[in-house]
Specification:
This protein is an alpha+beta fold. It has three helices and 17 strands. Strands 8, 9, 10, 11, 12, 13, 14, 15, 16 and 17 form a ten-stranded antiparallel β-sheet that branches. The longest helix is centred in the N-terminal third of the chain and has 46 residues. The protein is globular, with a radius of gyration of 31 Å.
Amino acid sequence: MTFKLKKLALATSVVLSAFMLQACNDADTAANHNQQQTESTAKTEKAEMKSLDVNVIYLDRRMLPPGAVLNVALEDVSLADAPSTTITSEAMDVAGAPPYPVTLQYDVAKIQNNHRYSLRATIKVGDKLVMTSTTNIDPFAADVKQPIEIKLDRVAHQQNETAENTALVGQQWNLVTLEGETVKPGAGGNVAFIQFDMDKKSAHGFSGCNNFQGVFETSNGTLTMGPAAATRKMCMDGMELEKSFLETMPNFASYVIVDNVLTVKDKQGKQIATFKSDK
């Protein structure tokens, strides 16, 4: 009887040891699996981050005032009827002469092949805009090389900014000249025009054959527009006008209104379009 009890105790001990050994092995396996998952996730997250090297310059020889802050942003400008969406941005205090090197880190997962993107840079002192970029720069275009150069233009502050903004919106601006040439009516004898909605920061109109929509920004005499989206109707007349009109819009940089005439200039100060109010 005693021999059988000892034999049973020994067998029980062996089984318990086996269970404990298996439990340890399972714990080690689980720990290793969790560690591998953590390392894999970390590597994946790291692989999704890329950078854009940017040099911000301006040709104005005047020094920046104290407290100047440079902001560079990567924006999604795909939606013609909505403001741009910021993917990532970097801000830094600036002093002295340019160039100002900036590195933007962005998440690759946020970049979609069928979307349009642009780099934008501004310099502010407090809430006052001092300089801004006025051209669309696609950082993912095939011919773009880093560091990507962004040129800033000084903002001409005006005392009557509110009055001019009020005059800009709420009415139809009929296109009169484009790149120095008098504009003829488009399809159906209709005049190309543009209208601005300050609340929505959106613009819409007729470009010669199709209707279009886009977004715009205005501040202290500047006027910039993102790419416009148009309907795709084919017309016997107005197609050439439409092509030129839509291609010119992204070059808008500044504006002035005198006697119901809206004059738009590019970043070099060259007049590129004039409009007359329908009122």
